[in-house]
Amino acid sequence: MPSPPPGTAQADTGATTLAVLLIGPAGAGKTSVAKFWAEHRRVPTAHISLDDVREWVCSGFADPQSGWNDHSEAQYRLARRTCGFAARNFLANGISCILDDAVFPDRPVVGLGGWKRHVGPGLLPVVLLPGLEIVLERNAERSGNRRLTDEEVARIHGRMAGWYGSGLPIIDNSQLDVPATARVLDDVLARSIASPPQW
Prior knowledge:
- The chain is of the alpha/beta class.
- The chain contains seven helices and five strands.
- A five-stranded parallel sheet has the order 2-3-1-4-5, with helices on both faces.
- Helix 3 packs parallel to helix 4 (about 110-120).
- The two termini are about 15 Å apart.
């Protein structure tokens, strides 16, 4: 992936080819922010949603809400590899990409390690982590297999708290709308380009 010019204090993220991984619990706003960010960049940018890719499987879709098992695990792994393959192809053709996934800090090999293998070492991870009450409100507005139980949302949110102290940039977007969160994301990415997080 391209590097910023030497001596650049604040990289211009709008003119740079990037691969971004937006991490967060269900209801954090990952998909909305990723889509908005991708749509409003000055350079070609693709949004690759893990959930959308998972749902390419119609017959035999293994929904984790029905219980986490070998089939749902295999379909998640396949979807991540597929997203990584797509991201590498976009990047090779000068198109930035932003991926979104609920990566858990207590499963580094499956999560961040897997994404780094699939996309490449230049991947920039950023965590969206609003307060629990916010993700519960947003989850309540969902329908179908995208809506989780309150208990599951709270459990996922609790596990995501492990990102604090990880060294990854974290955005608390509890009080931010989607455009404001995208602006903060640009600021965070500019700092990450200048001084990449160790992960």
